[in-house]
Amino acid sequence: MQRLVLVGGGYGNVRVMNHLFSDGLPNDVEVILIDREPYHCMKTEYYALAAGTISDKEVRVSFPNHPQLKIVNAEVTKINLAEKKVELKDADDVSYDTLVVGLGCEDKYHGVPGAPEHTLSIQSIRKVRHTAQELHCMPSGSTVSIVGGGLSGIEVASELCESRKDLNIRLYDRGERILSTFPERVSHYIQEWFENNGVTVINKSNITKVEPGYLYNNDEANATNAVIWTAGIQAHHLVQELDIEKGAGGRAIVTEHHYLPDHPEVFMVGDCAYYDQAPSAQLSEAQGDQIYKVLKARWNDQPEPKLEPIKLKGMVGSLGKKKGFAEFMGKPLTGRVARLLKSGILWMYRYHNG
User: What residue stretches are annotated with the FAD/NAD(P)-binding domain (predicted)?
Assistant: First the structure.
């Protein structure tokens, strides 16, 4: 009996499971999914959960149900490559023949003093719940500072603006214009939306320290009641602890077939794998598609398949519930159409996976 162990129930491993259980899983393969949570969480919607504009239930999707699937709800404490096992907290270790690691990411604080201790996070469902509780209980007139003007920071700021109009919201961005990787037209549209809705954007910022009640920008103290950190991510610490070659953000260097060069039985997916494109749910799913092709070839005693470079269709973001922005098939979109596009993608994901 072959044992395939999937560590982490994120977008990449959910995609692997969807293929496994719909395309004919060999009878001699046992699949074990290890995750702290009893359901898949739609991380792309964490910003709305933090702001309080959607409920916890709306980000949860049930894991697949299959007779050859066993789900273990436990916290992973170590990936033991030498002994080919996954060590768990308060549970028995799980051995594997093949392993797919999709543990996700953690905040990257860039060495800023006080940032790990005094900021709120949206990188895990448990941290998002804590962040939401803090934001919900803030008195009227409180100041919330969001560090990082990328996609996550923009969506948190806009959603919080709609949820708590009584708060003062500041968005700190390092660039000369917000979301500088997008076309200028999109950046200007987002900037105008924030101006019209009372969100203060502080460009060319450089956060140097965080203290209780204060955020230091270019060493100047700014009074604040809360700080939400969206200024960078890195691979899960268990991946960073592995004695393997790593790239930017502590992500594992993998072959073109997504496995470790010295451990062909270990695949890395999503934020755990170094790739030449920015991490995203869309990229994780595409990696999951290709990992399944490799697994299928191995089980059928076939050569490794030729895999084409992953090409993403684009990126979409929201500005509250009615407006949005996107770069889709190389074309920038703004306004209601972009928001409808994102809503449609989310509906299709829930329908396909739920």
Answer: 3-282
User: Who's near 46: CB < 8 A, 6+ residues apart?
Assistant: 59, 122, 123, 125, 128
- Report CA dihedral (313, 314, 318, 322) to the nearest 10 degrees: -60
Report pTM.
0.94
Architecture in CATH for domain 2-36+74-106+233-299 = 3-Layer(bba) Sandwich (3.50)
DSSP string of 232-268, one letter each residue: -EEE-HHHHTSSS-B-GGGPBP--TTSEETTEEEEEE
Provide the CA 249 distance to its chain's centre, in angstroms.
Answer: 14
CB of 200 closer than 8 Å to CB of 209 = no
For domain 110-231, give the CATH number: 3.50.50.60
Neighbours of 11 (CB within 10 A): 29
Summarised one tens digit per residue, pLDDT across range 254-282 is 999 999 999 999 999 999 999 988 889 99
* Tokens 């030498």 found at: 82
Q: From 257, 199, 254, 248, select the one nearest 228 (Cα to Cα).
A: 199
List every span in the chain annotated with CATH 3.50.50.60.
2-36+74-106+233-299, 110-231
